[in-house]
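INFO  loader      accepted 1 record
INFO  loader      residues=195
INFO  predictor   begin
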Amino acid sequence: MTVPSGRRERKKAATRQKIADTALRLFLERGYDAVGIRDVAAEADVAVTTLFSHFASKEALVFERDDDFEQRLTQAATGRTPHEPLIPALRREIQALVRHCTADSAAPIWRLIDESPALREYEESMRLRHAESLATAIAADPDLPQTTTACRTIARFVIDAYSLSREAADPEAAVDEIFRMIEAAWAVTCPTRRA
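INFO  predictor   done
INFO  writer      dumping tokens
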């Protein structure tokens, strides 16, 4: 997450974090369905309108790092060094995300998500959005002349690699196994260049 530079931006970021932390604590203590938006706002000592100025929905409170994850994925594609292959860059980012999301401290959050149909549905829509953003970033790279279908497919594979690896008994091994398949698929679409 980028650190806000101005006082106002820092204050907004602190308020946003306070709301997210409060919501997560309440959800874990009482259960997602037992906590309402008004409960979160009251406990965080903010107005409901303030809460909604930071988060579009109750589900977004659980996935408060969503924008960061999406930016990290697209940055892995667009910010790689010249001549750095695409797939290894994406693999490194997915490995980092999987390590973050499989840490012991994340287990209660994933149980919360798994127990809530609303949160599972939100996570699925979030993954689809991340895949579209990543596909757009890949397609915009002039050094990677691929069809829209190839870009969207590889992006979807990368996002699915994150989900499948996070749920695997050995997440690191799963990332390696899945990315071997992604590399093979990518090589078929661009056999004359290393991407």
